[in-house]
Design a protein that fits this description.
The structure is a single chain. By secondary structure, the protein is of the alpha/beta class. The protein folds into two domains: 137 residues, Response regulator (Rossmann fold, 3-Layer(aba) Sandwich), CATH 3.40.50.2300; 98 residues, Orthogonal Bundle (Arc Repressor Mutant, subunit A). It is 35% helix and 21% strand. It has eight helices and 13 strands. A hairpin with a 3-residue loop joins strand 8 and strand 9. Helix 2 packs parallel to helix 3 and helix 6 crosses helix 8. It is elongated and about 60 Å long. The N and C termini lie far apart (49 Å).
C-alpha cells in the first residue's frame, strides 16, 4: 500500500501498521487533494476509510455508515460542518468528531467544541499530528469497537457468533440478525441510556427522522423474553424514562 502524504510538506510519510483492531473513519472534506491524502494515510495506517465531498452527503454518511470517528471540515458546500455536527450529536451522541478547520476561524472552532466536537486540527496539518489526534480520541470514546462474541447473563450465555442464547438449563433459543446486532450494541454500551433514534441510526442504519420507534420497543420486548428478563420488573434491559433503554451494568 502506498504511503500517505504529509499535507504540510507534500512529502510521503510511512507510518508503520501497528496491528490494531480494524476501525473506520469517515472523512467529510470538499478539497479533493486533502480528502484523498487523508483517506490514503488512514488506510495505510490500518483504518477503513469512508469519504464524502459535501455537507449533505457527509451528514447522510455520518448517520448511516458504520464508522467509529468523523473527520469534519467546516466550510463545506450544501451544508456547513457545524450543522452536521449538531445533527450528529443529536442522533449519535457518542460518535467522536474531530474538526478540520483553516487558520483564523477561532470562532468556528469554539462553536464546534461547544457543540460537542472532541478535538480540532488546524489546516495545514501534518499526517503525524492528525493520526496522533485520531488515536487519542479513539482511546477515550465509548463507541470504540469491541470484538464481542459471547456475553453471560443471569439465565445463560448469549453467543453472538452463533446467533443464539444457551440457557444454563441446557436449552437454547435462536436470535435473529437484528436481535443479535441490537444486543451487541447494548453489550458494548453498558450502563448508558441509548435513545431509540440512536438505535435506528446505529443498528438499523436508517435516518430516524419521521420513522416510528415502535419497532425498537418490539425488538427490546423480544430480547427481554429471550434473556428471560420479561415481566413487570426487568433487571437486564432497563427502560430509562424519557430517554430509551439501557443494559444494566450488572445483570442479576
Amino acid at each position: 500500500m502506498p504511503p500517505g502524504i504529509d499535507l504540510l510538506t507534500s512529502r510521503p510519510v510511512t507510518p508503520p501498521y501497528n496491528g490494531r483492531m480494524l476501525r473506520s473513519v469517515l472523512v467529510i472534506e470538499d478539497d479533493a487533494a486533502i480528502r484523498r491524502g487523508v483517506v490514503d494515510a488512514l488506510k495505510f495506517d490500518g483504518y477503513t476509510a469512508f469519504e464524502a465531498a459535501d455537507g449533505e452527503a457527509g451528514l447522510k454518511a455520518a448517520l448511516q455508515v458504520d464508522c467509529d470517528l468523523v473527520l469534519l471540515d467546516l466550510a463545506l458546500p450544501k451544508m456547513h460542518g457545524l450543522e452536521i455536527l449538531k445533527e450528529v450529536r443529536r442522533v449519535r451522541p457518542t460518535l467522536p468528531v474531530i474538526i478540520l478547520t483553516a487558520m483564523g476561524t477561532e470562532k468556528d472552532r469554539v462553536a464546534g467544541l461547544k457543540l460537542g466536537a472532541d478535538d480540532y486540527v488546524v489546516k495545514p496539518f501534518s499526517i503525524a499530528e492528525l493520526m496522533a489526534r485520531v488515536e487519542a480520541v479513539m482511546r477515550r470514546t465509548p463507541e470504540r469497537p469491541q470484538d464481542i462474541t459471547e456475553h453471560e447473563f443471569a439465565a445463560g450465555i448469549a453467543d453472538l457468533a452463533r446467533c443464539e442464547i444457551r440457557y444454563h438449563d441446557g436449552t437454547r433459543v435462536d436470535l435473529s440478525e437484528r436481535e443479535r446486532e441490537l444486543l451487541r450494541y447494548f453489550i458494548v454500551n453498558p450502563g448508558r441510556a441509548i435513545s431509540r433514534d440512536e438505535i435506528l441510526s446505529r443498528v438499523w442504519r436508517i435516518d430516524p427522522k419521521g420513522v416510528s420507534t415502535r419497532t425498537i420497543d418490539m425488538h427490546v420486548a423480544r430480547l427481554r423474553e429471550k434473556l428471560r428478563d420479561s415481566g413487570d420488573d426487568p433487571r437486564i434491559l432497563l427502560t430509562v424514562r424519557g430517554k430509551g433503554y439501557m443494559l444494566a451494568a450488572e445483570q442479576t
